[in-house]
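So, could you explain this one?
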Amino acid sequence: MLHIPIFPPIKKRQKLPESRNSCKYEVKFSEVAIFLVERKMGSSRRKFLTNLARSKGFRIEDVLSDAVTHVVAEDNSADELWQWLQNSSLGDLSKIEVLDISWFTECMGAGKPVQVEARHCLVKSCPVIDQYLEPSTVETVSQYACQRRTTMENHNQIFTDAFAILAENAEFNESEGPCLAFMRAASLLKSLPHAISSSKDLEGLPCLGDQTKAVIEDILEYGQCSKVQDVLCDDRYQTIKLFTSVFGVGLKTAEKWYRKGFHSLEEVQADNAIHFTKMQKAGFLYYDDISAAVCKAEAQAIGQIVEETVRLIAPDAIVTLTGGFRRGKECGHDVDFLITTPEMGKEVWLLNRLINRLQNQGILLYYDIVESTFDKTRLPCRKFEAMDHFQKCFAIIKLKKELAAGRVQKDWKAIRVDFVAPPVDNFAFALLGWTGSRQFERDLRRFARHERKMLLDNHALYDKTKKYLKKKTTNNYLALNDVCSDLSEWHYKG
């Protein structure tokens, strides 16, 4: 098989004659020789950074050689970079610092070489590479949520709650960048086995930018963050949050109602000019029940009802509880199930028959079946998508009073339930995707794309260096199911 190198081969370039107008810079820090990797950085940016560094007295090498002490890359994965260095003609790699652009940026800000810390280092977790690394350069916390153990015990809730509010507000404002930044910071802090007690505890941690650090420092100093307090007092945030808490109401609809001057659900319902969808009508009708948390016992009770009903339709069907309850959470907003059959094609009629059975039992309050748009010939999506293309059903089910937790005024409690029916070939990927959490899924796909050169979504895994991975047999399905189960349990229960 022909191997195409990820990086271009290292060639010694002929030195071009200097032009009469070229600047000669004084080298102040001769002990530090920096080589900037052009790949992904681009030639124009590399040239700009080279001139900037030289103007500040830094020694920048145009060619990679044994004279280089620091290799600096931007947006390159550690795996690719180390493979490239190993294939070069360099001698002892242990004498070279392989760093992210963040170290270079800090040097430029300080006007001198700054000390190399763990957070600056690009480290590949591989025995072949580890022999070239000093123990002090190994990162203990990964930038990817899918490589961190996250238990149910959160030692930094005061910070993660603040980030959740800021992320939600950014999402309401359709500011994707800040939203992701706050979500990543919250995910990171949740994974830590200790509480953050000072700014020093943040050293070496990835995923923390200036904004997120400012929030943490604010809380450490004053016990709360002024930025978070401003959001909580913001009229638009409060109103949009209220409106989107209604089943069937998205951000655009909530924004539309807010711009009309509505501030309460009663004002919205009193306007005869608004034509509610079937889903929104159910959302208002059962608002008190479905806006309340669903506990684990209620989820298990719903699970028993669903499994018993499905078994009447297809005795060999596979019914799996997913979402937060599969991760071990004690409460959530709804209950999610994946349902399929060991034989390909038989899953297509499962949801319709399940809905008919639940209707006959008199416990189905609302349902909306969305037919499958899944296309086996399409590659996995490069971007994170919250919803997949399998057949699914959004429903509201009655749960008897004696099975519901807390005080229930009537004889039953309305519970939001989602059903998804993927083909058995794609069940494992759907299981992993529906287990969550949202940030875990984002980082899992980002890791697959950047570190493994693969595309992953709820439907399939595509290896860009090989071929589309199709799983057709029950044995293969079971093996993948075990892998997905092990992954989610390892990540969340540690």
